[in-house]
Amino acid sequence: MPDSRSLFERLTPEGQRLMPVNYRFMEPLAEELGSVQRLAESSVYHADGYCCWGFHKPISRCCASSKPQSIQEDAREEEVSVEPIQTQPIDLVKKLRLGLEGVFVLFACCVPVRGARRSLICDLQRSVFCFIPNGLYKILNEHRGKTIAAIKALYGNSYDEVIEEYFEFLISKELGFWCTDPKCFPDLDFGWERPERITNAIIDADAASQHNYPKILSELDDLGCKALQLRFFCSPGQQELEAVLKAAAYGGLRSIDIIAAYNIELTVEALESLSIQYQRVNSVIIHSAPENRGCVIGRNVTLRYLAQAIDSPACCGQVHPRYFVTNLSAFAEARRFNSCLNRKISIDARGEIRNCPSLPRSFGNTSDTSLHSALAHNDFAALWEINKDQVEICKDCEFRYICTDCRAYLTSPGDVYSKPSKCSYNPYTAEWLPA
Ligand code: SF4
How far is 329 from 84, CA to CA, in rounded Å? Predict the structure, then answer.
C-alpha cells in the first residue's frame, strides 16, 4: 500500500490546494487509522470537482450484459491556504483506532439505505455497494454521533463483540473512520437539478422507419439532451449508421449508445473505426449475432455481440443487479425523481413521441409535432416525479436508489405505483427468484 504522504504528493498543486481541509487534517492519521487509500481517493475526488459525477444515465435496460455484477465487493470543497499539516499525539491515534475515543463517521460518499430485511451502504465514489444488517443501519443512523462505549451501553453490553465486529467491518471496507470532530464532516447535498429540459432520449427504428434524423437531433440538441440511445430493431448497415452519427456530430450530446441487429458489415474493425471517428459513441450492442462475445474498441467503447434478439420495445424494462448504478448523480436523481423516465423523451419506430417507447401514450408524431410541443403538454412530465419511495414494494427495498425503475411493465398494469413486473427481487426475503 502506498504511504499517505506519497499519495498526497501525487495530487497536482491545484488538487492539493483544493483538498478539503478536513481530509487534509486527517491525512497524517490515515495510515494509523487504516484508510490511506480512501483518504487519498477522496482528496482526488474533491480536487477534481466531483470527477465521479459521470453524466451517463442508463436509459434502457433491454438485454443481458457481460459486465461483472457489482454486488459486493464530499465533504466540502473548500479552498484552504497551504499550511503545515497538524499532527495528533500517537496515543490519541491508538484510542481512535480502538474506538475508545471519538465517534465513527461514514465517509460522506458512503450512504446507508435501509431495506425490509437488510440494508446497503452505497459507496457513491467507488461505485460499489455492500450489504449490512439492519442492526448496523440502526446504529449508524439512530446512534450516530455516539461513542462506541455509549452504543454498547445502549444494548446493555450484551452485544459488545457484535458491535465491535460491525465497526471493524466498516473500517476494513474503508467505509468510514473514527474522529473526534464529526461535525466537520457534513453529509452530501442530495439535491438534484439540471439546466437541461431533457437529459436523455431514445430513438427506435426498424426497417419501415422514416425518421428525419437531422431534424430530431437538432430538436434534441435545443432541449439540451446529453445522452442518446439509438435502438435499431433491424440491421442498419454501416452507411446508415454513419449518416445518423454524422447528424449528431456537432450538437451537445455527450454519449450515444447504439443497439443494432447483426449485419455482416458491422465487424469489430468497422465499428471501431466508426467509434474513433464519432467519439460520442459510448457503447455498441449488436443483437441477433451468431454468438455472444464482447471486447473494448477505440477510445474505451464497449462492444458486445449478443445472440439474443432485441426486436421490439418489449425487450426493455429488465431489473437486475448488473444494471444497478451506484454513483452520486444517479443516486441523487433516484431519491427525488423517477430513475428511468425523468427528463427523458422517446421516439418510437413510427415516429410517435412518448415518455418511453413501451408506454402507450403518444404526445404526437415527429412528422407534424416538434419535440418542444410534445414536451409542453401538461401530462408529459407526470411520470417524472414518481420515485421509488412512492412505489409499492420498491419503497421497502434496499436497492431503491440504485435500481432503474420501469413504469411500462407493471405487476398491476392499472396501478402506476406498482412494482416493475420484470423484477424478481423480494425485499422482504432478500431473495432473487429465478427469472
Ligand atoms: S424491488 Fe423495486 S427497487 Fe428493488 S430491485 Fe426490484 S424494482 Fe428495484
Answer: 34
Q: What angle do CA 363, 357, 237 make, to 5 degrees?
A: 120
The sign of the dihedral angle between the CA atoms of 233, 239, 240, 241 is positive
Q: Give pLDDT tens digits for 304-345.
A: 999 999 999 999 999 999 899 999 999 999 999 999 999 999
Would the CB of 129 count as within 6 Å of ligand 1?
A: no
Which atom of ligand 1 has the smallest separation from the CA of 393?
Answer: 1
Which residue, judged by its Cα, is nearest atom 2 of ligand 1? 394
The radius of gyration of the chain from alpha carbons, rounded to an integer in Å, stands at: 24
Residue of 393, 404, 426 to mutate, ligand 1, most atoms within 8 A of C-beta: 393
Read off the pTM: 0.81
**Which residue has its alpha carbon closest to ligand 1 atom 8?**
403
pLDDT of amino acid 38 = 65
Q: What is the pLDDT of residues 103-119, one digit of tens each?
A: 999 999 999 999 999 99
If we measure between CA atoms, which residue out of 91, 125, 133 comes closest to residue 109? 125
Rounded CA-CA distance 59/225 in Å is: 12
Q: Give the percent of the chain with pLDDT over 70.
A: 77
168 contacts: CB under 8 Å, gap ≥ 6: none
153-156 own/partner pairs: CB under 8 Å, 24+ apart: none
Angle (nearest 5°) at CA 316 between 312 and 321: 155
Q: Which three cell numbers stand for residue 54?
A: 459521470
Q: Is 425 near ligand 1, meaning CB less than 6 Å away? A: yes
Measured between alpha carbons, how far is 318 from 250 in angstroms, rounded to an integer?
Answer: 33
Using DSSP, state whether 48 is helix, strand or coil.
Answer: coil
What element of type H or E holds 180? none
